[in-house]
Amino acid sequence: MSEASSATSRARFITFEGGEGVGKSTQVKRLLQHLQQNGIDAVRTREPGGTAKAEAIRSFILQGRSESWGAGAEAVLFASARLDHVRQLIAPNLAAGTWVLCDRFHDSTRAYQGLTGGVDERLIGELETLALDGHVPDLTIVLDMDPEIAFRRVEQRQLADGLKVTGDRFEKEELDWHRTLRDGFLAIANANPERCVVLDADRDEDELERVIWATVSARFPEAVAGAEA
Ligand SMILES: Nc1ncnc2c1ncn2[C@@H]1O[C@H](COP(=O)(O)OP(=O)(O)O)[C@@H](O)[C@H]1O
Ligand SMILES: Cc1cn([C@H]2C[C@H](O)[C@@H](COP(=O)(O)OP(=O)(O)O)O2)c(=O)[nH]c1=O
């Protein structure tokens, strides 16, 4: 971090949320570059995952091995992964002055296991308190678009990678379910207007990158101190 920015600002924690294929990973990488080009130390990470233990839980869940356990148990697994991630990676980086950009975080548990999975709001809230350990994101960017268009993006990625177009077990869910999920993310953003910003993700990657940078720089003006014009 440059001396000027470290002297005037603390490190920020920014999460990206939204359905599958809306461009979260693409934009997390682009924002990381922007921050670094502006002399700000930053790391990117993802959920579930980010640490060895959390990545082990990720592969267990995404292989479908916890599916029969039910949404409540999966919420507990996601929270266990999150607790390790917060303690081992997120909190130490923030404490050291490094910004943290995370591809999905606690709102995904609210949206997937809570609002669409039917897990009781109180359990979701208790797990959140435990796993976040006080580390509520400073900003959450919700990338919003029609899931059908986002699906086509994911299919194209799989075709380009020479993969069978099957999707992981979440991506196999019905389109209607994904529309409900989209509404869930919008409801979360609506309930947390001071933290969340909803951006239309159905646009060109470069244009979306510009909108995200404008959002981050407006929210944290110190990020652009010394930025190129
Ligand atoms: N704005 C965009 N327009 C078109 N395709 C995009 C855009 N952003 C990302 N993609 C492509 O769509 C696919 C899914 O993007 P990705 O960033 O992995 O989404 P997510 O992390 O939300 O699942 C990738 O193949 C990516 O290259
Ligand atoms: C973090 C988190 C993810 N998930 C789901 C969302 C995704 O379907 C999956 C993560 O897979 P991933 O391949 O990272 O999805 P994407 O590319 O769409 O971001 O796990 C939950 O159900 N709850 C959670 O708390």
From TrEMBL:
Q: Known EC number(s)?
A: 2.7.4.9
Alphabetically sorted, this entry's keywords are:
ATP-binding, Kinase, Nucleotide biosynthesis, Nucleotide-binding, Transferase
Q: Which residues bind ATP?
A: 18-25
The record lists the catalysed reaction(s) as: dTMP + ATP = dTDP + ADP
- Alphabetized Gene3D superfamilies for the sequence: P-loop containing nucleotide triphosphate hydrolases (3.40.50.300)
Pfam families reported for this sequence: Thymidylate_kin (PF02223)
The name this protein goes by in its record: Thymidylate kinase
**UniProt organism field:** Devosia albogilva
